[in-house]
Amino acid sequence: MFGIENSANNFGRSAGLLANTIANRPTTAALGTLFIGTNNLILYRYNGSTWDIISGGGIAGATNGLQVVGTNIGLGGTLTQNTDISGIGSFSFKFQNYSSFAIGNSTEPSMIFDTTFETIETYHSGVAKGLKLDFANNQYFLGNQELLINAAGGQLDFNFGGVGLQMNNFGRICYLGDVVGGFNATLLSVDDINEEIITFNQGFANGIEIDFANNVYNFGDFSNVSNGTYIMVDNSAQEIKTWHTGSNRGLLLDFTNLIYTLGDYNGSTNQYYITIDDGLGELRFNGANLQSNSASGNSGEHLVIWLNGTNYKIKLENP
Hints:
rod-shaped, 21-stranded antiparallel sheet, mainly beta, 4-stranded mixed sheet, 1 helix
């Protein structure tokens, strides 16, 4: 007894070694007194006002905040089986299959660290949502997987019900709208490499095309060659013209040469159009059936016009 008390002696004052449950630990003791909790196997030392923890304990079926964590825990803390460390209420730590570590539970928010798939993922009510970090594939999700950062593909996707935003850093292109709608998709494309802004609908590039690289700006169905109709503003050529079925027709305003044309000036057959040549001061009528070599028995050229349902021929004289 003398040896125990002497080894616990602090600065010559009387101290001792006590052992009991935490509930029966005295509130005060001599300075330097040691106490072993029999229910948690923790060693305490009294510092004159409070009990300091000297060393950790073991399992021993503790009830005062320390729970049994398993039956096969090796030296050094190595787990050899699935282990559930339960906390206050329903909160818990779970080690599963030696490669997964979970915090929380199935009904409240929880987080799972999976070393096999190299992921960190949050769950709520048993559903994966909130955050997913996929280090194996360099993909990172936020929300109910509406926001995706794909580091491998250099892409950021924000998808809410099929409508959202997609940005590709490698291709330097950005889409806004129905980015996953397929055939019925309606979206806006900003292409930094080709210096273009284009709208799409139902799989076709139509609506608006702004081509900054070539200074060409289109409005209409410019991708449908067989039946497309659109207006083109060509800033390089200083022209405004309309297109239909792959050909220039309808209107051509040539500001460089001061020539303005209206009609089917580029058709393969039955071409009828009017041209105003401001540079030469001319008004031109073009069309195979606009002139006739005979009228009322007289020879000569005549201009044929349609007025109020009747064809008229106007005799033309060479100046």
